[in-house]
Amino acid sequence: METTNPQHDAEDAAEALRRLAHSTQKLDDPADTYWVITDLAAVVRRLEQVTTQVQAAHRDNVDLAHDDQGKAAPGQVHALTAVEHLRKAVEMFGRAYVSLDLAMGHSGAIAWYPATNTTAAAAGNSRPRAQARHARHESENDNRPASVDRAGKRSR
Known about the structure:
64% of the residues lie in helices and 3% in strands. The chain is mainly α. The relative contact order is 0.10.
């Protein structure tokens, strides 16, 4: 779904994130959290890139900025102020990515057992749900590149 209209692309991204916010209000299977965190990290990294590019557009075109009355000075002040706020947003996205990456590592180390088998799981007599879910995700052709985690397991 490639387009050349950044406004439409931003609207599509906002709508996709709205659907994600709705679908994660209740996660029936906690093993799904790993995959959500993984994709959130990718989203944050892309938001960082887009924000950097929007910041550059403001900075590189400051001489074209005017206010609603056609005055250059106030428009340029607004453009440069936007540049500073966008720079701060880029920094925050970078910190958010690091936190999500750390959360992903910890979430990926969890073996989620069904609630009904808690006693059996504690005794080692039950297979974690996360293993079955992980195998299902590996078999799906979802166009995400395979990667290898710290334990050497392939994931998507």
